[in-house]
Specification:
Blueprint lengths: L1 H10 L4 H31 L4 H27 L4 H20 L13 H20 L2 H4 L1 H21 L6 H33 L9 H20 L2
Helix pairs in contact: 2-3, 2-4, 3-5, 3-7, 4-5, 5-9, 7-8, 7-9, 8-9
Length: 232
C-alpha cells in the first residue's frame, strides 16, 4: 500500500493541463525535426551521399535533437514522468504506422528494422522506471542521454569512416567520450561506470533487441545496482 501511494504521488502530474500543453509543444517540435531531416536528406543526396548514408545521418540527428534535447528539458518542464511517457509512446506509434502500412518515411526509416520505434519506447519506459525508483528526474534521464547523444556519436563516426551501418570499435570509443562526462556529471562514479559498460554493450544486437534497448537497460541496471550497493 505504501508503494502504491508513493507511485501514485510520483506518477501524478502537479499541473496536468500545463504539462500536457508543454508535451504537445514538444511533440510538434519533434515532428518539426523529422520534417527538417527530410530537407537535410535532400541536401545530402544532392551532394552525392548515398541513400543509406543520408538516412543513417538523419537517424542520429533525430537522436540528438529529438530524443536528447527533449530528455534534457524534461526535468525542468515536468513534475512527473507520466506525460512524457505518453508523449514517447505516441511518437513510437507514429513511427510504427509507416512500417505497418509499408509507406516508410524514407529519409530516416529503413525496411530492415524498426529501431526508431524501440528508441521511443525505451525513452519513455526508462525515464518512468528510474524516476519512480530514484524520485530524481535528473538521474532518470541518464540512460536516455547515453542512447541519444552517445549512440549518435557512434553512428556519426562510423558513418563518416565507413559509409555504412557497422559495429566497428571506433564508434564505441566515440560513445564513451560523449557518455563519460554525462554519466559523471549526473550520477558521479556510478554514472561513469554505466557509461563505460553501456559504451561496450552498444556493439551487440540480438534480433529485435537492438542497441537502443541494450544501452538503456544496461545503464539502468548499473544505476540500480549502484543504488543498492552504494546508496546512489
Amino acid at each position: 500500500m505504501h508503494f502504491l501511494t508513493y507511485a501514485l504521488q510520483i506518477l501524478t502530474p502537479q499541473h496536468p493541463v500545463r504539462e500536457s500543453l508543454i508535451a504537445l509543444g514538444l511533440g510538434i517540435y519533434v515532428l518539426g525535426i523529422l520534417y527538417l531531416t527530410k530537407r537535410l536528406y535532400d541536401i545530402m543526396r544532392r551532394r552525392g551521399l548515398p541513400h543509406n548514408v543520408a538516412v543513417y545521418y538523419n537517424r542520429k540527428v533525430i537522436h540528438v535533437f529529438g530524443g536528447g534535447v527533449v530528455a534534457l528539458l524534461t526535468p525542468c518542464l515536468f513534475s512527473s514522468p507520466t506525460i512524457p511517457l505518453i508523449l514517447s509512446l505516441s511518437l513510437a506509434t507514429l513511427c510504427y504506422i509507416p512500417h505497418r502500412t509499408g509507406k516508410l518515411l524514407y529519409w530516416f526509416q529503413v525496411p530492415d528494422n524498426m529501431y526508431e520505434v524501440n528508441f521511443c519506447i525505451m525513452w519513455g519506459v526508462s525515464l518512468t522506471l528510474l524516476w519512480l525508483i530514484f524520485n530524481n528526474p535528473w538521474l532518470a534521464i541518464v540512460p536516455i542521454a547515453f542512447m541519444a547523444f552517445g549512440d549518435a556519436a557512434t553512428g556519426i563516426v562510423r558513418n563518416t569512416l565507413f559509409r555504412r551501418r557497422t559495429k566497428h570499435w571506433i564508434g564505441n570509443v566515440a560513445m564513451f567520450t560523449v557518455c563519460a562526462p554525462i554519466g559523471l556529471y549526473y550520477a558521479g562514479l556510478p554514472g561513469l561506470l554505466a557509461a563505460a559498460i553501456s559504451s561496450f554493450i552498444e556493439r551487440f544486437e540480438f534480433g529485435v533487441i537492438d542497441d537502443n534497448v541494450l544501452v538503456t537497460v544496461v545503464a539502468m541496471l548499473v544505476l540500480l545496482v549502484s543504488k543498492l550497493v552504494f546508496q546512489l
